[in-house]
Amino acid sequence: MWKAWAERLAEQVKVLGCGDPDVISAIREIPRHRFIEVLREGAEEGDRRALEQAYGDFPFPIGFGQTVSQPSMVARMTHLLSVRSGIRVLEVGSGCGYQCAVLGRMGCVVTGVERIGRLVDWSRRVLGELGLSVEVVHGDGLDPSLGLGRFPRVLISAACSKEDVERAFGGLLSDPGILVAPVDVGGGMQRVLVVNLEGGERGERWEDLCRFVPLVGGLAKD
Ligand code: SAH
Fold first, then answer.
1. C-alpha span between 85 and 188 (Å, rounded)
2. 75 within a domain of the structure (yes/no)
3. Active-site position among 69, 72, 94, 157
4. Which residue numbers in the chain have pLDDT < 50?
5. Can you give the pLDDT at residue 43?
6. d(CA 160, CA 211)
7. Whose CA is nearest to atom 13 of ligand 1?
8. Is residue 28 in a domain?
9. Among 61, 109, 154, 178, which one is most buried in terms of CB atoms within 10 A?
10. 69 counts as catalytic
11. What integer pLDDT is reported at residue 40 of this predicted model?
């Protein structure tokens, strides 16, 4: 049943402007309801209407005051990252793991970092069940002592400041590399910033307005 819902969601994301066929296929193939613990625990068996909510184009609460991002925004960020199969991607703020799953389905070698321990456990379980080889690290994604190394693609999935972007740029992005992040622009809104590094030359461009939950320093106390 979820396949028809995911198909409809993929079509909707396409109509909303994502013309990247690889991203659209990944959205079509990932069972988003399985990443949302509250829906799954309550309704796996019976309540189909509850599960169907996971396939609407809106953010959805995943507990701990966090949300899984809106599918059209996941698609947009994924497209802006310009990934290809085999490329290593770091996602800071991997939450329930849906964005990691989309990247993993596209063949990326994904590392997610998440500061809330229970979301780490949950996302590892769901990604494992789906057979996606995504590594999820428990930590503050911008803490250099994590020793994650550098990645050719870095996606920050929580609202951050320009200083946070500089920290990620300085410590996590390899050259050549692309970093995508929602950067606070005031009024509770962010704008997606794309930073392109090549041969030491840095290019920046600003894209869509968006709204993400905030990046927070340190580990969450479970
Ligand atoms: N991409 C996720 C949703 C992102 S919500 C998904 O597909 O579900 C943002 C997530 O960032 C939240 O789960 C939050 O706990 C996490 N987060 C916030 N600050 C962080 C930090 N400094 N390091 C790691 N994770 C962080």
1. 35
2. yes
3. 69
4. none
5. 61
6. 11
7. 95
8. no
9. 154
10. yes
11. 76
Q: In what order do the strands lie in the sheet with 134-138?
A: 134-138, 109-114, 88-92, 151-156, 173-186, 189-198, 201-210
24 falls within a domain: no
Structure tokens at 72: 């059209």
Q: Are the CB atoms for 53 and 32 separated by under 8 Å?
A: no
- The atom of ligand 1 lying closest to the CA of 101 is 7
Amino acid at 39: L
**pLDDT at 44 (0 to 100):** 55
Q: What is the pLDDT of residue 46?
A: 60
What's the total number of domains in the chain?
1
pLDDT tens digit sequence for 191-215? 999 999 999 999 999 999 999 999 9
Q: For residue 112, what are the domain limits?
A: 65-210
Our answer on whether the CB atom of 140 is closer than 6 Å to any ligand 1 atom is yes
**CA 100 – CA 143 distance, rounded (Å):** 20
For 201, phi and psi rounded to 5 degrees? -90, 135
Task: Answer whether residue 57 is part of any domain.
Answer: no
Q: Is 66 in the pocket of ligand 1 (CB under 6 A)?
A: yes
* CATH number, domain with residue 71: 3.40.50.150
